[in-house]
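Let us practice reading a record.
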Amino acid sequence: MLRKVREKFNQLLPFLLIVVFALSRIPGMLPQNFSAAYALAFCAGVYLSGGRAWWLPLLTLLVTDIGLNLYYWLALGWNVWELPVLKYQLFNYAAFLVIIWLGRRFKPQTSFLALLGGGVLGALLFYLITNTASWFFNPFGNPEYTKTFVGWLTALTKGTGGWPQTWEFFRNTLLSGGLFTGLFVAAVKLTSAESPQEKTAGVREPEVGVSDPEAEGKPEAEEAKA
């Protein structure tokens, strides 16, 4: 029974990853930068095999990005189709590629704590890459993002006026990366753990009263030597 549940879960794993990935990007679903996307991109690298680990999360990212851009453009009036904005979004893809690549460095059998640390590291890398891109391209013309070291630190810590400070985004990024990685890895490990009965399944018990012929011959050989 448990084996069938595990097989079913493994079959549904790519679908579950993509559905949660897409739902987590719905505007207002989660707090700013509190997203399952970082953890799920990392877990896709760990658990999905071959090319699926790359194209499945990236295709989902592309489709949801198009939907989000249409929402921001039509509902909020943001001009999200300008070249600087699109260039900045490309760095999101670069960041997710790095996270998937990081996940590929791990194996599904890796310990829970190591995978949890990998998920948090992936979220940290995403934050550094995307905020550096926001500072460098400055698609919305934020005056605080001067092309200096101080401007870069401002982008990483304080951000721009009228928005929450970026250190709050940093906190949410790390928390969500750790939380969702932990939840997903725990679910996979719990469903892949073998029960004691399954571990011993197919293992034959030694037959009572039947001895090893070679073992029986050993005393005689020792006596012959004497």
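A brief commentary: Residues 61 and 158 are 27 Å apart (CA to CA).
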